[in-house]
Write a structure and sequence with these properties.
Pfam families: p450 (PF00067). The termini are far apart. By secondary structure, this protein is an alpha+beta fold. Bound molecules: protoporphyrin IX containing FE. Protoporphyrin IX containing FE (HEM) binds next to helix 15 and helix 19.
Length: 487
């Protein structure tokens, strides 16, 4: 009888031996996990194939499970998402120590091989790029934004033009129930289009509908099989996995092609002495780069603006206070501009409080320790994905007085001016923080203040939609309708 046959016969005749064998096997696995190349941070148990997934089960989105686990295991928590090693950072001190004090170590993005390969055909984007190429592109994007006037009058005029047309389009349906998010998407896409390509689209232009359809497809949650293929690249040999993976990647292609077409359109009228927008800058610096991240930024801004509307339905007193401030300081005879911001501290503070509580970019974008590294005495293996829980910082009781209460006043100092506490980080922190922060803040303020100047925001249904978000690529409000009633 072979050794294997002997083992099988012993096991089948003695269930106690089977139990002992299984128990020893699990203990050895757990021990191996703890002892593999140094001390790992605490975290839930991890098993072969599924990793720590069993501990995240039962939540609508596995990532929602991070918070109860972090309460148990702490602000530096290690787990395995299936096969992938993952570090989850929570709380201001930890997040700051990682993203600012240890920025060199924590500023990579994970190497999602399939996605990254696709982008290479279109030039490197910023979001999923690493190393020298990412640094150069990021610098170029930030410099470019400054050169074309983000934060100055040039871009404000483009936003203001869009705000006026947006307000006018809502006024045509005054008092009717409106599904806001899709409308907002058209407006924020147009701001991006004006800044980047120097042109906007009419709200009923088929090109705009085409772009929205591409973006809808792109932002649909990925099927579980596609996520699995990213974690286990070898699974792509199986035809069903390959199929969903290809479908996912193909959804990005039309967006990138759309951008390429706009870039080509601009090339025909390019004059190196007149830089009109971002694409002209690209041409002037001889770059050919279709980066879809700008439209991701438009989606995030539209989502955030939608949160602002939903919060105003929940907090009509705050809405009224903003309106009174706008009436008093600006009046109703002309649009609100950025120059008015300093005299509208309550309105600005309301925008900030919605950003703090709604947490559109709740887990930032994944960071990575592609080479591994040491943090707080722990040794992290190479290819560790890092999830940064920004909501944990925005809800930290020792940083915010009654963090669960919606209170714009918390952002106004004793001198009546707006203050920005260090634990306020809706755009992330450190070298990977949002490159669109300045533009997004201008847009949010101008759209929000001008909507409140012109309309009362009223719920379209007797029951208010809950403030609990739906987690996809970003944290979005549940769909709802709103009425814009003329003031
Ligand atoms: C309210 C609107 C927005 C919010 C809340 C937001 C938030 C964020 C957050 C949390 C991150 C991740 C930071 C990290 O990984 O640590 C990010 C990254 C990024 N955002 Fe935004 N964003 C917004 C609008 C925009 C806009 C309008 C643009 C473009 C014009 C933009 C472009 C980017 C880019 C390119 C990155 C990646 C930066 C990098 O990897 O170096 N975002 N954003």
């Amino acid at each position: 009888m072979s050794v294997i046959e002997q083992l099988i016969s012993t096991f089948s005749s003695d269930p106690t031996t089977v139990c002992i064998f299984v128990a020893v096997f699990i203990v050895v696995l757990l021990w191996r996990r703890r002892s593999s190349g140094g001390r790992l941070p605490p975290g839930p148990p991890s098993y072969p194939i599924v990793g720590s997934y069993l501990s995240l089960r039962g939540t609508a989105n596995p990532f929602e499970g991070f918070e109860p686990l972090a309460e148990k295991y702490g602000d530096v928590m290690f787990l395995k998402f299936f096969r992938a090693p993952m570090l989850v950072l929570s709380g201001y001190e930890t997040v700051h120590e990682a993203l600012v004090k240890n920025a060199d170590m924590f500023s990579d993005r994970p190497d999602f091989t399939a996605t990254v390969k696709l982008f290479k055909d279109y030039g490197d984007g910023i979001v999923w790029n690493n190393g020298a190429s990412w640094r150069e592109l990021r610098k170029f994007a930030l410099q470019g934004m400054r050169e074309i006037g983000v934060g100055r009058q040039g871009v404000e005029e483009k936003i203001q033009e869009e705000v006026t047309l947006f307000v006018a389009s809502l006024a045509k349906e005054e008092g009717q129930p409106i599904e806001f998010k899709r409308r907002a998407m058209k407006a924020t896409n147009n701001v991006i289009s004006s800044v980047v390509f120097g042109r906007r689209f009419e709200y009923d232009d088929p090109k705009m509908s085409e772009l929205l359809k591409f973006l809808d497809d792109l932002f649909k949650p990925q099927p579980a099989l596609a996520n699995l293929a990213n974690l286990f690249p070898w699974l792509a040999v199986l035809p069903p996995v390959k199929k969903v993976q290809n479908e996912g990647l193909e959804r990005i292609v039309p967006v990138l092609d759309f951008i390429r077409d706009r870039i080509s359109e601009r090339q025909e009228t390019f004059d190196k002495d007149i830089i009109r927008d971002f694409v002209d800058l690209y041409h002037a610096k001889r770059r050919d780069n279709a980066d879809e991240s700008v439209f991701r930024g438009a989606e995030t801004t539209a989502t955030s603006l939608t949160w602002h509307v939903l919060y105003m339905l929940h907090y009509p007193d705050v809405q009224k206070k903003c309106q009174l401030e706008i009436d008093r300081e600006v009046g109703r005879g002309r649009p609100v501009t950025l120059a008015d911001k300093a005299s509208l501290p309550y309105t600005e503070a309301t925008v900030m409080e919605v950003l703090r509580m709604s947490n559109t970019g709740v887990l930032a974008l994944p960071h990575a320790l592609n080479q591994g590294g040491e943090f707080r005495g722990y040794t992290l293996p190479p290819a560790t994905m890092v999830m940064v829980n920004l909501r944990s910082v925005h809800m930290q009781p020792d940083k915010w007085d009654k963090p669960e209460v919606f209170n714009p006043q918390r952002f106004i100092g004793p001198d009546g001016h707006v203050t920005r506490p260090p634990a306020f980080m809706p755009f992330g922190l450190g070298p990977r923080s949002c490159t669109g922060e300045m533009l997004a803040k201008q847009e949010l303020f101008l759209f929000f203040a001008n909507l409140l100047q012109r309309f009362h925001l009223k719920p379209a249904t007797p029951e208010l939609t809950s403030l609990k978000g739906v987690m996809g690529l970003v944290n979005s409000p549940q769909p709802f309708e709103v009425k814009f009633v003329a003031r």
